[in-house]
């Protein structure tokens, strides 16, 4: 299979067309969708849920500076947040991301309805790792034209959503839906019904139970904080995200809206496993 099929288009600032993201191979789609999510401030800002964020980190290995052991997966999204305006009580939130597709004819694909037990097991792994707040983020990538003739969530998702709520609620996991329609000229978002906050494009179905961070998560968080503070001095105060390059095995601080290659080794960060 060609590795270039889901890589960004030539040129910076326009990482994907709807064709390349919606039709990207399943093994690349999750990382490609996360990258697109963090290329658009209106998409990732609501994840902070009203908090001020110090940084977001994506696709970070759990065993990075934590001693390894049984924790060998990646954390899809990790955020360091605090309350406005001057609180020094830092909050950490983590998300496991799953990506499904909504076609313009109203049908749905890649719902992963038979993989709920595996998803719950992954979320339990986050909590066992010591993450203080664990949520499932269901990202729905919509085919161009879906939003013009369909509602969200469609009736076809009712059983899937209710089944996940039933499994996640008693375990204290959060649950959010994030639909968006990438296009060749930007991003379209659903018209949120009047009972929803019109400034939010995520659907917050369950809040996550929170507690203090534990080891080995705390060691990883400390390492990311130290890296960010040093790297931010060089990068300036724009919206940069922490990523990890698997080729040179280094953390990087980049602006995912404009950058997709490692500044040290020039590896394509999106197509890395």
Task: Give an account of the 3D structure.
It is a single chain. The chain has helices spanning 18-22, 26-37, 41-44, 116-129, 146-149, 158-168, 217-235; strands spanning 52-61, 74-82, 91-102, 108-109, 134-142, 174-183, 186-188, 203-206, 241-245, 250-254. The chain is an alpha+beta fold and 273 residues long. The protein has one domain (3-254). Strands 1, 2, 3, 4, 5, 6, 7 and 8 form an eight-stranded mixed beta sheet that branches. It has a two-stranded antiparallel ribbon with strand order 9-10. The protein starts with 17 loop residues before the first helix and ends in a 19-residue tail after the last strand.
Set out the fold topology.
Elements: H1 18-22, H2 26-37, H3 41-44, E1 52-61, E2 74-82, E3 91-102, E4 108-109, H4 116-129, E5 134-142, H5 146-149, H6 158-168, E6 174-183, E7 186-188, E8 203-206, H7 217-235, E9 241-245, E10 250-254
The tally of domains stands at: 1
DSSP helix count? 7
Largest β sheet strand count, sense and barrel closure: 8 strands, mixed
Portion in strands: 25-35%
């Amino acid at each position: 299979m060609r590795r270039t099929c889901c890589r960004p288009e030539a040129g910076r600032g326009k990482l994907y067309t709807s064709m390349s993201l919606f039709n990207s191979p399943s093994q690349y789609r999750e990382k490609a969708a996360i990258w697109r999510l963090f290329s658009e401030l209106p998409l990732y800002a609501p994840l902070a849920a009203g908090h001020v964020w110090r940084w977001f980190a994506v696709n970070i290995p759990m065993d990075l500076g934590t001693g390894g052991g049984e924790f060998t997966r990646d954390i899809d999204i990790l955020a360091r947040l605090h309350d406005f305006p001057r609180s020094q009580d830092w909050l950490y939130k983590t998300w496991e991301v799953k990506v499904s597709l909504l076609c313009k004819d109203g049908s749905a694909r890649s719902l992963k309805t038979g993989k709920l037990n595996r998803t719950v097991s992954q979320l339990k792994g986050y909590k066992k790792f010591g993450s203080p707040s664990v949520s499932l983020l269901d990202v729905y990538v919509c085919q161009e034209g879906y939003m013009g003739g369909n509602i969200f969530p469609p009736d076809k998702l009712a059983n899937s959503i209710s089944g996940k709520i039933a499994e996640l609620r008693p375990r204290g996991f959060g649950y959010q839906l994030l639909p968006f329609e990438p296009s060749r000229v930007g991003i379209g978002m659903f018209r949120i019904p009047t009972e929803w906050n019109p400034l939010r494009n995520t659907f917050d179905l369950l809040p996550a139970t929170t507690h203090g961070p534990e080891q080995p998560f705390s060691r990883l968080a400390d390492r990311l904080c130290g890296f960010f503070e040093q790297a931010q001095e060089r990068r300036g105060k724009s919206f940069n995200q922490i990523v990890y390059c698997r080729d040179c095995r280094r953390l990087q601080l980049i602006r995912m809206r404009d950058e997709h290659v490692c500044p040290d080794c020039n590896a394509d960060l999106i197509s890395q496993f």
